[in-house]
Specification:
The structure is a single chain. The protein is an alpha+beta fold. The chain has helices at residues 25-32, 35-38, 48-58, 113-129, 143-151, 180-184, and strands at residues 10-11, 15-18, 69-76, 82-92, 97-104, 133-139, 155-166, 169-179. Helix content is 29%, strand content 34%.
Length: 187
């Protein structure tokens, strides 16, 4: 079964979620170059050619197979600034499982943009794409992302202890999720 991309761009009250454009590279590189952002991604910030290749992949939204990812730039409607990105990754086409992710420039934290953009991705994931379950994996120390998941009404399903290691440091991970039927019954 192939999952289809929703009609893009997606829009919220303050944001436009759209495929990245070449002119977004500087904004993308600014937050992807930060060690404090990558600390919770269990890797080092990509450099030079690796960063360009990662950006080029992000510019190609795809839901055609397991592991494929639809990454969208989050643009503020008011001024066109790229604030970060949201993504849905196909975890399993057979089980209609998607993984939600979001990365934002810390300069734009605290204004509710991540929650607003991630809520729209959940809506698109359930209503337009047809996922049965969408989950998010979050480092337990990433308190901002934990709050976003909880504001979105995702349920904490798991706490994995020391399940990943980066730069000599073990990390714990929470898994949050929501089912399509829970999304359709939200108040």
């Amino acid at each position: 079964m192939m999952l289809a991309l929703p009609s893009l761009p997606l829009r919220t009250a303050r944001l436009v979620l759209r495929p990245f454009r070449q002119q977004d590279f500087d904004a993308y590189a600014a937050y992807h170059g930060r060690a404090d952002v990558y600390r919770f991604l269990y890797s080092f910030p990509p450099q030079a050619e690796e960063l360009q290749q990662q950006f080029d992949r992000a510019r190609q939204p795809d839901l055609s197979q397991d592991g494929a990812t639809m990454t969208l730039a989050v643009e503020r409607s008011q001024d066109g600034s790229v604030l970060g990105e949201v993504l849905l990754k196909v975890a399993s086409t057979a089980a209609l499982q998607g993984e939600l992710g979001y990365i934002f420039d810390p300069a734009h934290a605290g204004a509710g943009y991540a929650t607003e953009a991630a809520r729209e991705m959940l809506r698109a994931g359930f209503e337009d794409i047809g996922f049965h379950r969408i989950f998010a994996r979050i480092d337990t120390q990433n308190h901002g992302s934990v709050k976003v998941a909880e504001r979105l009404g995702l349920r904490r399903e798991a706490h994995f202890r020391q399940n990943d290691r980066h730069d000599g440091r073990w990390g714990d991970e929470f898994v949050y999720a929501r089912l399509a039927e829970e999304w359709s019954q939200r108040g």
